[in-house]
Design brief:
With 139 residues, this protein is of the alpha+beta class. 37% of the residues lie in helices and 25% in strands. It is built from 5 helices and 5 strands; from the N terminus they run H-E-E-E-E-H-H-E-H-H. The chain has a 5-stranded mixed sheet. Strand 2 and strand 3 form a beta hairpin. Helix 1 crosses helix 2. It is elongated. The termini are far apart.
Amino acid sequence: MADSIGEHLDRLGRNQNPGLKDLPAWARGIIRLDIRGDERVDQWFITLEKGKARVSRTGREPDAVICAGRPVLDQMARGEAKFSPSFFRNDLIVEGDLRLADAFGRLLFPGPPMAHHPRDFVREEGAKRDREDRKPPGR
């Protein structure tokens, strides 16, 4: 089943998002996520602090507001789109603390599940070559 923004928010609210531990110490605050679709807007409030997240339907005044259509957020949840390029294409709108919104976007929408950082890829390939070089000849 394809991931949706709702499933991502559910996992985030249960602190089951692996990116929470990588959240910078400065990334604390309230983000309101406005999900547009079918002539209505669903609002979610995400409170980030100390590597934990709370997700609710109501909240205090947000530090940042992210507004996007459900199809865009679902694509991001599946790893088919990334936060920053979507922002620069005007597929989503950010108001308030852009730095906090960007940290949240990177946390919630890390990219395709099979994606590798180039340095990790080079390390893995180098380790494979080292193992192959150590094999005795003729095998």
